[in-house]
Write a structure and sequence with these properties.
alpha/beta; six-stranded mixed sheet; four-stranded antiparallel sheet
Length: about 230
């Protein structure tokens, strides 16, 4: 269980200070697939960063079970992220001088995972182990980033607009891979997206507006990546 209590986050100083998150409280159950929706500037990416420990709130607490990660030192927080969370962003952030195998192994080494090549196979890149990012399509590069994030065996996978730079066919394929791997490994997903259709895949959907949670609802019927609109 992840629980946020009265989270406030601002940027800037003095008269230019702007409150991005306004007193947000939220619970995320283990194994959930949560999508956070909102217009640009609504605070959804900042919320993701605070939940994941990438950014500290001005006030409020973030609990993973009984552990208050907002009370951790910087070093302890870094270790916590290394051991518990994975990240997938719109940009792939692959090292161009490393092939697929070595890029994914970077994530695996954080968890001492010797069986990481199974994840590369699971995302359909088993035959491209020794290809470099520049030799791959955008969809293939994003699948490498998915494999790298999952090779560290995270308890929670955070995704920020993971299909934003992909065409429809490739975006559906990447989402399908992520969902299949979630079914296999059982991790929690928290995903930020502006794509309303992707929300139909989630179990829990949060709508944000002006730094506040506007609504939270559950999808009684969930669609697959190939059933949603685009």
């Amino acid at each position: 269980m992840i629980e946020l209590k009265n989270i406030i986050k601002s940027y800037g100083n003095g008269e230019n200070r702007f409150q991005v998150l306004q007193d947000i409280s939220l619970k995320i159950k283990d194994g959930d697939f949560m999508v956070i929706l909102g217009a640009s500037g609504s605070g959804k990416s900042t919320l993701l960063n605070v939940i994941s420990g990438l950014e500290r709130p001005d006030s409020g607490k973030v609990f993973y079970d009984e552990a208050d990660i907002t009370a951790f030192s910087d070093n302890k927080l870094t270790v916590f992220r290394k051991e518990n969370v994975g990240f997938i962003f719109q940009q792939y952030y692959l090292l161009p001088n490393m092939d697929v195998d070595r890029n994914v192994k970077m994530g695996a080494d954080l968890a001492d995972n010797k069986d990481y090549k199974a994840v590369i196979e699971a995302v359909g890149l088993g035959e491209k182990l020794h290809k470099y990012p520049g030799e791959l399509s955008g969809g293939e590069q994003q699948r490498v980033s998915v494999a790298r994030a999952l090779a560290k065996k995270p308890k929670v996978l955070f995704l920020d607009e993971p299909t934003g730079a992909l065409d429809e066919q490739t975006g559906r394929q990447v989402l399908d891979y992520i969902c299949r791997l979630k079914s296999k490994y059982g991790f929690t997903i928290v995903m930020v997206t502006h794509n309303l259709n992707i929300a139909e895949m989630a179990k829990t959907v949060i709508r944000m507006n002006s730094g506040k949670i506007e609504s939270i609802y559950q999808n009684e019927v969930r669609k697959t990546a190939y059933e949603i609109g685009w």
